[in-house]
Design goal:
This protein is of the alpha/beta class. Helix content is 43%, strand content 11%. Bound molecules: D-mannonic acid (CS2).
Length: 505
């Protein structure tokens, strides 16, 4: 075992040839790798997902698909990935099993948090044919209930006034495309890898909403030269913890400040709609399809829906991680029945997928005890997640007159999670959600009246479209669940909802 105080060498190109044999390393020559694509938002998910697929592709055939990783928001990359020459360790973990691999596909990192000029330089360059993005749901600055650009968003207001020095993702992309149009004019694909429905359509909508304000032909140029494919991305990769960094030090004997941990499962389904040259990720496990919609509904409603349900109800029940929440037999039964009885019937057939097996597989993934995914992390930005994970299946069921007794509970769970973070409800935990302030103000003004609380939150029409918000069945179900959840009796509400839900079979 390592002596705690012994200095360790930091991962970097100089260490590659001396890595322990247990650690897989890039099989290609990074020195000749040209950067043909950029990625915005180099977090744990990108490093565990798209960058790994690209690493696989580069091992398969070495082409010009090195990645320039750009952060336009914290954290800064220079001192971690940057000082390691872009290299990092990706650990795949399943219970006691650890599979380490150094990923080499990120060849350069660019910090563009203080000024967007460095990001624009990369995005507008003629060498970049593909831009992938993981900027979180709220990064699109769209209205969750409609998918339209939120012109009231402060960053969008800023970008409309300062189009050449934008702050928002849509503003930065619109400006980069404008620079491309005015210089080399090369086509480019902008590929969203965030969990929002029809992510390509939303990205195109928000970028075009800004471009069409320019009156310089930009919107038409984009229509002719830029592709916005939709994609379904999947791998559970929680935020890295100091324990993950320590694990690499202890087991493999080097320091890596950019370690990421993910589960074995991974999936990437991409709409086959590209402009310019395309990395052939389909040769290394990704699937190119003509329509991503069935895959995206399946993943967001089943896997992500289960995660959000376990996260909010888990926090309310005092449980720390997804794996702790699903280890509770009542919560496990609840989420299983919710998915099988209410969610699955809303899904369209998915090529090659047996729905029940997918549910079992998804819940099995959430039981992986080596993946320390905090319920608070998943509950972060819940307002941006519940539409695609819970409200859309609820809407589909209501349209057919079907029960929503179970799906409505995590919706009330999201409300209770934010309400209990308000001053009037004792600030039970810190929250991070663009709507946290609004819900706290409602809670502070109203106090403990579930009916008025639910009505006021359902009136936020940027999350709940009016038709859904005024549906009597939905309102009654949410009010009833919220009442119980605010009485700090989470498990009683879960049990009661199971009893009230339509019996199986
Ligand atoms: C999670 C997702 O934080 C969250 O919202 O639900 O990051 C989830 O782990 C991924 O979508 C899995 O592919």
């Amino acid at each position: 075992m390592r002596v705690a105080s012994a200095p360790l060498e930091t991962l970097g190109p100089q260490l590659i040839s001396r890595l322990p044999s247990a650690v897989q390393k890039p099989s290609y020559d990074r020195a000749v790798l040209a950067p043909g694509m950029a990625h915005i938002g180099v977090g744990a998910f990108h490093r565990c997902h798209q960058a790994e697929y690209t690493d696989d592709l580069l091992s398969h055939r070495l082409e010009f698909w090195g990645v320039v990783g750009i952060n336009i928001r914290p954290p800064f990359l220079a001192e971690t990935l940057g000082s390691q020459g872009g290299l990092y360790t990706r650990l795949i973990r399943q219970d006691n099993h650890v599979e380490p691999r150094v990923i080499g596909s990120i060849v350069r990192v660019v910090d563009s948090q203080e000024s967007t000029a460095p990001a624009l330089d990369v995005l507008a360059s003629s060498g970049i044919d593909m831009v992938t993005l993981t900027v979180t749901e709220k990064g699109y600055c769209h209205i969750p209930s409609s998918g339209a650009l939120d012109f009231n968003h402060p960053d969008i207001a800023h970008d409309l006034a300062n189009p050449e020095a934008p702050r928002s993702v849509p503003g930065i992309l619109a400006r980069a495309l404008e620079l491309r149009m005015a210089s080399h004019g090369r086509p480019v694909t902008l590929l969203s890898c965030d969990n929002i429905p029809t992510n390509g359509v939303i990205l195109e909508t928000v970028v075009q909403a800004l471009a069409s304000q320019r009156n310089n032909g930009l919107a038409d140029w984009i229509s002719a030269n830029v592709a916005f494919p939709s994609a379904m991305v999947d791998r559970i990769a929680p935020a890295t913890t100091p324990a993950d960094i320590e694990l690499v030090a202890q087991r493999f004997g080097y320091h890596d400040a950019a370690v990421v941990v993910g589960e074995p499962f991974r999936q990437w389904v991409i709409e086959q709609k590209f402009a310019g040259r395309v990395p052939r990720w389909d040769l290394v496990g990704a699937t190119f399809v003509s329509d991503v919609t069935p895959f995206e509904h399946l993943k967001m409603r089943v896997l992500n829906g289960a995660q959000t349900t376990l996260a909010t109800l888990g926090v309310l029940a005092g449980l720390e991680h997804t794996s702790d929440a699903i280890a509770d037999p009542l919560l496990a039964d609840f989420v299983h029945r919710m998915l099988v009885e209410e969610t699955l019937p809303t899904l369209m057939p998915v090529p090659g997928v047996a729905p029940l097996a997918y549910v079992e597989q998804s819940l099995g993934r959430l039981r992986n005890t080596a993946i320390r995914h905090r319920n608070h992390q998943i509950a972060t930005d819940g307002s941006q997640k519940i539409v695609q994970r819970l409200l859309n299946p609820i809407r589909d069921r209501l349209a057919k007159g079907e029960s929503i007794a179970l799906l409505s509970v995590p919706v009330a769970g999201w409300m209770a999670y934010l309400i209990q973070a308000s001053a009037r409800f004792g600030k039970s935990w810190p929250v991070s959600d663009p709507y946290a302030g609004k819900v706290a103000a409602i809670a502070d003004a109203i106090g403990h009246d579930p009916e008025v609380l639910a009505a006021s939150i359902l009136a936020i029409d940027t999350i709940f479209d009016p038709e859904l918000a005024t549906n009597p069945k939905f309102r009654a179900a949410v009010i009833s669940a919220l009442d119980g959840l605010l009485s700090n009796d989470t498990m009683a509400i879960v049990r009661r909802s199971l009893q009230q839900a339509a019996p199986t079979g």
